[in-house]
Amino acid sequence: MKTESVYPEHWEKRTRDEVLVLIDEYIHWYNHERIKQSLDWMSPVQYRQSQGMAA
Predict the structure, then answer these.
(1) Domain limits at 44?
(2) Which of 11, 32, 52, 53 could tie 48 with a disulfide, CB 3.0–4.6 Å?
């Protein structure tokens, strides 16, 4: 998990459900919204769909 999402010193202040929501949001961003130059400026999901692969 990237430190940009949840700083280690703040983990103990969050509930289990809050942490799970943050992780889910990060995974969604990483796969659906993060664009990459190496994928022709598409997100991983967009790239897979453009190649006819399942997302």
Answers:
(1) 15-50
(2) 53
